[in-house]
Amino acid sequence: MATTMRFVSLLLMNLVIYMSGTAQCSITKHSDPNPAEFVKSSCRTTRYPVLCVQSLLAYASVIHRSERQLAITALSVSISRTRSSASFVKKMSKARGVKGRERRAVQDCVENIGDSVERLKQSVRELGRTGVGEHFAWHMSNVQTWVSAALTDDNTCLDGFAGSAMNGNVKGAIKERVLHVAQVTSNALAFVNRFASSHPTQSP
Fold first, then answer.
1. Measuring CA to CA, which residue among 77, 107, 102 is closest to residue 89?
2. CA distances from 91 to 49, 115, 117, 170, 173 (A)
3. Among the four given CATH numbers 1.20.140.40, 1.10.10.10, 3.30.300.230, 3.30.300.70, the one describing domain 34-198
């Protein structure tokens, strides 16, 4: 009889442990999305969510579910696309038929986009120095300042082509490229700000 009772008690205990484990597993699966879903849900908080998903989804396995890695990856993508645009604008500055005010605008844009690339590279290096510690807020302030400045560089380039006198193929081609870069950088800045605000250590 005692043996039977012990067996029943053991059986019930195993059943409770099994049910608890199953419930915990279910909660984890429901509340902890896979990397692709993390990227998609994160992108919904940006100004350009469709572009965000298009540019970052391929890196979901690298980002995993890390806010820090999401910001670093978004900045890295921004650097790559800004460099590509810088090369394009530089080629356009040497194109035939570009003269006067339009040539000056293109040359200024080459300088602005070049500055943007450097600021973004600084931001990635600085973000790589962030960790749990007293200097986190200081590093993140630098990152936010440089990414914001890179975005300003992009917009300054676009401002140079304002006005009806600048209507043309060169203006259209450059604006399309730089606007794309500005939107990618804007999304990256959103993730930088999100990572900065979510970190528990905010005091310098």
1. 107
2. 30, 17, 17, 11, 12
3. 1.20.140.40
Q: What count of other Cβ atoms lies within 10 Å of the Cβ of residue 203?
A: 7
pLDDT digits (tens, 9 = 90+) for 144-202: 999 999 999 999 998 888 776 566 777 888 899 999 999 999 999 999 999 998 776 54
- Residues constituting the chain: 204
User: 53, 29, 26: which is closest to 41 by C-alpha?
Assistant: 53
| Token reading at 62 | 């690298």
Q: Any idea where the domains of the chain sit in the sequence?
A: 1-32, 34-198
Q: Long-range contacts made by residues 21-24, C-beta under 8 angstroms, separation at least 24?
A: none
For 80-103, write each residue's pLDDT tens digit. Answer: 999 999 999 988 877 777 777 778
Q: Which amino acid is at 153?
A: D
Q: Which two tokens stand for residue 98?
A: 């570009």
- The identity of residue 137, as a single letter, is A
91 burial (CB, 10 Å; 0-12 / 13-18 / 19+) is exposed
DSSP code of 46?
S
Residue 131 · residue 72 · CB < 8 Å:
no
The Cα–Cα gap between 71 and 199 comes to 13
User: Going along the chain, which residue ranges are E strands?
Assistant: none
